[in-house]
Design goal:
Length: about 260
């Protein structure tokens, strides 16, 4: 059993064959998929997908790319949608200083605000950090975000950052890029981190692992990421599957629930 801790099934890439994608995941042993609605136009569809498939849960929030679209209604709409029991976390929120699709000052402000909203909603948070490691750490610390717990998704920082996040109460989610040839520095970090602090994710339709690199990613491929983690840590695949699944269920507050 595996869990894809982060995918985007509401994106247009899955419009045509979502039933098959969810079915293939099940056949590959992926018991749950967490789909992330990152902007207003995607929230309802993410939630609708989570209600339609027993194996899919939703995560809702405003991505740093869309930070400048937040207006006076945004948090009210999110507050309402997040009452649904299919919503298991708030996100993805954070900073993206690589693409800078929203001005940095606005990203910083909205990141802090959304940690506050997640606290009100009593949800763990899913963090997106690209080329903004220092600023991300500073905000997580000053907002005491560790009290909420959650996930650093598509982790791309160094070992020290990973350690700091784990010490704060977060887990580190490993994407398919761990299988890439040039991933040696990242692979080394994963070797050194405890399995008890790791999740696996696809971020589908992006970041497709080897051997499907270049094609559309989908949740069933999360097994290649888990396989790579097993290889790096020198433990059986089953152990990685079991422990990362338990970690994900714990973070998303589903560990009391029986598998469907
Ligand atoms: Zn992201
Ligand atoms: Zn994402």
């Amino acid at each position: 059993m595996l869990i894809d801790s982060h995918a985007h099934l509401e994106m247009p890439e899955f419009r045509k064959d979502l039933d098959e994608v969810v079915q293939r995941a099940k056949e590959a042993g992926v018991e749950y998929i967490f789909t992330v609605g990152t902007e207003r136009k995607d929230w309802n569809r993410a939630l609708e997908i989570a209600r339609r498939y027993p194996s899919v849960y939703a995560i809702l929030g405003v991505h740093p790319h869309n930070a400048q679209e937040i207006d006076g209604h945004t948090y009210g709409v999110l507050t309402k949608l997040c009452q649904d029991e299919r919503v298991r976390a708030y996100g993805e929120i954070g900073l993206d200083f690589y693409r800078n699709l929203s001005p940095r000052e606005i990203q910083l402000k909205r990141f802090r605000e959304q940690i506050g909203l997640a606290r009100e909603l009593r949800l763990p948070i899913v963090i997106h950090d690209r080329d903004a490691h220092q600023e991300t750490l500073e905000i997580l610390k000053s907002e005491k975000a560790g009290e909420l717990g959650g996930i650093i998704h598509c982790f791309s920082g160094d070992y020290r950052m990973a350690k700091e996040c784990i010490d704060m109460g977060f887990v580190i989610s490993v994407p398919g890029s761990i299988t890439f040839k040039n991933a040696e520095p990242f692979q080394d970090i994963i070797r050194r981190l405890p399995l008890e602090s790791l999740l696996v994710e696809t971020d589908a339709p992006y970041l497709t692992p080897v051997p499907f690199r270049g094609k559309r990613n989908e949740p069933s491929y999360v097994r290649y990421t888990a396989q790579k983690v097993a290889e790096l840590k020198g433990v059986p695949f089953e152990e990685v599957a079991e422990v990362t699944t338990a970690n994900a269920l714990r973070v998303y507050g589903l560990d009391e629930r029986k598998p469907l």
